[in-house]
Design a protein that fits this description.
This protein has one domain. Helices cover about 35% and strands about 20% of the residues. It contains 2 helices and 4 strands; from the N terminus they run βαβββα. The protein has a 4-stranded mixed sheet with strand order 1-4-3-2, covered by helices on one side.
C-alpha cells in the first residue's frame, strides 16, 4: 500500500519526493514504490491561539446541564 503525502506547494512536493524516492514525475504528482506526493496551492491549516480554543470549549459547555 502506498502512502499519500500532501505538500503545501509544488516546490515542497518536489523536495519531499526526492527524499522519499518518488522519482516518477506526473502532471500533478510524483510517484515512487511506497509514496505518492502531491500538492495543494496555499496554506492547508491555520493556527489558532490557545485562548481561542479555550473559549470554544467554554462556549460549548455553557449550554450543558450539570448533574
Amino acid at each position: 500500500m502506498k502512502r499519500l503525502v500532501l505538500a503545501e506547494k509544488p516546490s515542497v512536493a518536489r523536495d519531499l519526493s526526492k527524499i522519499l524516492g518518488a522519482d516518477q514525475k506526473h502532471k500533478n504528482y510524483y510517484e515512487g514504490k511506497d509514496h505518492v506526493v502531491t500538492w495543494a496551492l496555499g496554506h492547508l491549516l491555520t493556527l489558532k491561539m490557545p485562548e481561542d480554543f479555550f473559549f470554544f470549549k467554554l462556549s460549548a459547555l455553557k449550554g450543558m446541564a450539570v448533574a
